[in-house]
Amino acid sequence: MDPTFLPATALAKLVRTGKLGALELLDHFIARTEQLDPRINAIVVRDFDRARARARELDSRPDKSAPLFGVPTTVKESFDVAGLPTTRGHADLASRPIGVTTITVRRLEAAGAVVFGKTNVPVDLADWQSYNPVYGTTSNPWNTGHTPGGSSGGSAAALAAGLTGLEIGSDIGGSIRVPAHFCGVYGHKPTFGLVPNYGDPALSAAAGTDIAVAGPLARSASDLAVALDVLAGPDPDESGLTLTLPAPRFGSLKELRVAVWAEQPGQTTDSETFAAILALADGLEREGATVSRTARPPFDAAEAFHLYLRLLDTAWSSRVPDAVVEARRQRLAALPEAANSADDVMLRTVGMEHRAWLGLNEQRFKWRRAWSAFFQQWDVLLCPAFGTAALPHRQDGEPWQRRISVVGREIAYNDLLFWPGLTGGFHLPGTVAPLGFTRAGLPLGVQIAGPIYGDRITIAAAALCEKAWLGFKPPAGW
Fold first, then answer.
1. Within 378-439, where are the H helices?
2. Which of 115, 280, 373, 414 is the most exposed place for a label (fewest CB within 10 A)?
3. Which of 321, 105, 126 is nearest to 196 (CA)?
4. Sign, CA torsion 265/267/271/275
5. Which of 413, 366, 425 is nearest to 388 (CA)?
């Protein structure tokens, strides 16, 4: 059996039952990486020798019951792994090895995973293009003239190309969901705070970052469920709490209650994306699901988007150098009053007082409660993960300087934050599942959002869609 494109759960079963050894399986993916990764440049940090030593040790264990036992795994470059650099695209960090492994990686390893490398990212994890001066550019295996997304672009590309068995990424502005959508794989953005994500205290923020989460990417919904069980749970250094996530209220498509939000006036979404989501809604309805194409939470979508943008900009402001802050102040002083792009909205948060931020946070929690009330009536919300399929490579200037044409309309590049931010800004979980393909052959995904701590619910809905609609399909030539 060729293990290349099997789900991680199936790979673990092969090792557990003795059909393949952990080292044999690892060497299969290492060989593919050495042969094929130059085409896309996804796995940019390689740790093959230590991974082989770990795989040999696993093969000697009598107990092989761990849920990810022997699964060759890569992780996003921004996750700390002791002995390897974490650069986030900055050349001055390339020669500085990490001393402490991130808790998410430690939990993967405790579950039996064999981490053999790290995958590429954009500088500061702040783009849907995955390129940087340290490791270069990562391409989409479906079309190497296109980006795999960002910031977990290398993660999604490696999975789609069959170079790894499982991945973990992070998400503050779609950084798990957009690459999953661009590359035709599964991705899960957990409820905020569900997965602790601290690493080497010399480099990692002890407080974390508002909105930002860590979560899995995979080739099946079942892998997301297993990975969530492994990764989720309170910080062991700070809490005696235990975690019990609510189970889905549905067991079949006939019991599923689905709200569909396929497009939004004033926000640009290409026609193939929203047509594919409406086609999925029609298919679910034929299977007996209760479907509404008009149900919405009771707030203005544009106001919710702008609230997210303000919270996003303040969230990552702590990692912005003083010189950049000063340059932004100068840009703000020259900003026309009527300017209203996503970047303009974010620019107006420069220098925001804490009292003003507290007002934003208060409004967020009011609308979080509105989302919670909405999900009393609906199990999940289907909406785009992003406004278009995989973008062509763009490396011109800063993201805030770029313009992009979608369905003949020119918009600011970061205006495409709408679909990631609509749910992510309010801390909701979101699962991306393969949906289909554009006429040009690029993958499309659907974002399945659910209530706070409804992570099992969104993943279960993705699993039903996987069975009835479409699962992962490998790109040709890989």
1. 418-424
2. 373
3. 105
4. negative
5. 413
H/E element holding 404?
strand 403-406
The rounded distance, in Å, linking the Cα atoms of 97 and 48 is 16
Q: What DSSP state is assigned to residue 82?
A: B
pTM over 0.90: yes
Tokens at 401, concatenated: 């300087």
Unique residue bearing structure tokens 């943008």: 309
Distance CA 102, CA 76 (A): 11
CA distance 388 to 273: 6
Residue 429 DSSP one-character state = -
Token duo for residue 338: 């009527």
Q: Is 260 helix (H, G, I), strand (E, B) or coil?
A: strand
Q: Tell me the C-alpha distance between 272 and 436, whole Å.
A: 10
Which residue has 């494109």 as its token pair?
A: 5
Strand order across the beta sheet in which 380-384 lies: 43-46, 114-119, 72-76, 166-171, 213-218, 186-189, 430-437, 443-449, 380-384, 257-260, 290-292
State the CB neighbour count (10 A cutoff) for residue 83.
Answer: 10
Residue-level pLDDT at 236:
87
Residue 227 near residue 168 (C-beta atoms within 8 A): yes
pLDDT for the residue numbered 1 = 82
Contact 382, 469 (CB under 8 A): no
**Residue in 300, 244, 205 with CA at minimum distance from that of residue 455:** 244
pLDDT at res. 206? 85
Q: Distance of CA 453 to CAs 226, 236, 326, 338, 414, Å?
A: 16, 19, 39, 38, 28
Q: Mapping DSSP to helix (H, G, I), strand (E, B) and coil, where does residue 13 land?
A: helix
Active site residues: 76, 151, 175
Of 448, 470, 467, 472, the C-alpha closest to 459 is 448
Coil, helix or strand at residue 369? helix
Specify the pLDDT at position 320. 85
Please name which of 269, 67, 40, 80 lies closest in space to residue 170, comparing C-alpha atoms.
80
pLDDT along the chain (478 residues), means of 10: 96 98 98 98 98 98 98 98 97 94 98 98 97 98 98 98 98 98 98 94 86 98 98 89 94 98 96 96 97 98 98 91 92 94 97 96 98 98 98 96 94 98 97 97 98 98 95 97
Backbone CA torsion sign across 394, 278, 160, 114 = positive
